[in-house]
C-alpha cells in the first residue's frame, strides 16, 4: 500500500511539474522578416518575440564567407523593442523552385550535388509528385560544412538570441529503399541527426537549441518502431537539447504516436516548442468535430504536451482576428 501511494504521488508530481510550465509565445514570421516592424506584433505584450527563418544559402553565400548582417539587423531592432529572436536555420525547401544550400555545395563534386529531391509516394513507393529539396544531411562532407556554419553563428549570437532551431527530421524518400539517395539509409540518417544536435549544443552554450523531430524515415510508430525517433529524444534529454516540430494538429494520430508522445514524455527534462503553421488553425478537433479554436491549440500545447514555446504563424484571418485578441486576454 505504501509503495502504491508513493507511485501515485510521483505521478501526480510529474503532472504538476508539467502544468507549471509557462508558454512563451512567438510569432513565426517565416521569411517575411520585415513584419517584425508591425505595430500589432510590437504592442502585443504576450508575444515575447519572433521566430525568423534564415537559409544556409543566404548566411554562407560563398565558401567560408558568412553574412550575418540580416540577423544582426533583426536582432538589434527586436532588442530595442524588448522582443527576443528565435532563429530557424533552414536547409530544406518544400517546392522544386528553390534550393537553400550554398552554390558551392551544389557545384563541388565532393558534396554529391548538395541536395536531393524529396517525394510524395504511395505505399509501393510509386512517385505521386516531387516535394522539394533537402540538404544531404547524412553526407559527412555536407554535414561538416553545416556544422561549421552553426559554430560561426554561435560565436556571433550565443547568449544574444533566445534560441536556434533546425528544420524537421522528416524526409520523403519512401520506405522500400528504391527512392533512397546515394549514401542514405535510415540508420545513417539517424546518426547524422544526432551529430547535428551534438554539434549545435556544443556550439550554443547559453541560447536554447531545439531540433524539430516529427518523424523519422524507416519506421512508423507504434507498429514499426526501430527506435530512430525515440533515440533522438533520449539523446536530447541526456544532453539538455530542446526538441519540437512543425504543426500543432490536435489529437492527430500520426503526431500523437510520434513527436507528441515523446515531447510529453520528456517535457520535464528538456525545452520544447512547436510551430502553429499554415493550415493548423483550420484543423478539425476530433473531440468536438469543429474547427479548432485558439484556446484549444494553446491548452493542448500547455497540458497535453507541456510546451515551453509556441511559434504562431500569421495565417489570416486567424492571426489578427483570433490569436491577437486571445493573447491580449491572457493574464
3D structure, described in words:
The chain is of the alpha/beta class. It is built from twelve helices and twelve strands. It is globular and about 55 Å long.
Task: Set down the secondary structure blueprint.
Blueprint: H1 2-19, E1 24-30, H2 39-43, E2 47-55, H3 56-59, H4 69-80, E3 84-90, H5 103-107, E4 115-121, E5 127-135, H6 140-157, E6 163-166, H7 186-203, E7 208-212, H8 228-239, E8 242-246, H9 253-257, H10 259-265, E9 272-276, E10 284-285, E11 290-291, H11 294-305, E12 309-313, H12 318-328
Helix pairs in contact: 6-7, 7-8
Summed up, what is this model?
The chain has 331 residues and is of the alpha/beta class. It is 38% helix and 20% strand.
